[in-house]
Amino acid sequence: MFIRPALLVAAIGCQGDPPAAEKVASMAIEVSSNGKVVAQVVPGRPCRATVEGIEVIVGGTPFEATVGDAKWTATTETNGTTFKKNGEPVARIHANQLFDAQGIPLVKVTDAGEIANGPGRLVRKATVVAGYAPQVEIKSLVSADAFVVTHTEDVVLAALLSAPEADPTIRALAACHLLQAAGS
Known about the structure:
Largest sheet: 14 strands, antiparallel
Helix content: 10-25%
Strand order of the largest sheet: 4-3-2-1-14-13-12-11-10-9-8-7-6-5
Radius of gyration: 20 Å
């Protein structure tokens, strides 16, 4: 007779919060195209990002990551944040734009969600979708391509994370930089 209440208490106790791994996965910002996840970022320190199969774990301060044999760092100056691979500049992010090592624009995002490629041609449009879970839809203006970026309303983050104009490692670093700068 006393055993049943004890079992009931034990069973109820097991109904608590989901395991930590499930919590982390539910907080992940994901980019999907045609129903397939192509990028995922888990905010925090460290920030964990996987873009097109490239996994990057970015530490906090100082900003650094190791991908294969390459050591990535970032320095912030008045002209933006420069990402360096083994000490050599590779890309820079500034004012919602991503530049290559020579300072040539790769992609630019306006606050209204318009996305331009390097030459300045509008190629995609990002729109925040209201609903239960925040998300951004990105639709191509030149093809049938589309992305859905879940767990964020940040159009700049969504646009840069899904930008085919940039290398997957740079996209992962840029996403982690934006999230860490925002305090996520």
